[in-house]
Amino acid sequence: MKEEIKNKCYLLSLEGYTGIDIASKLNISRGTVSKAINSIMRGNDYQLAVKSCGVLLEEFRWRIRK
Question: 37, 15 in Cβ contact below 8 A?
Answer without folding.
Answer: no
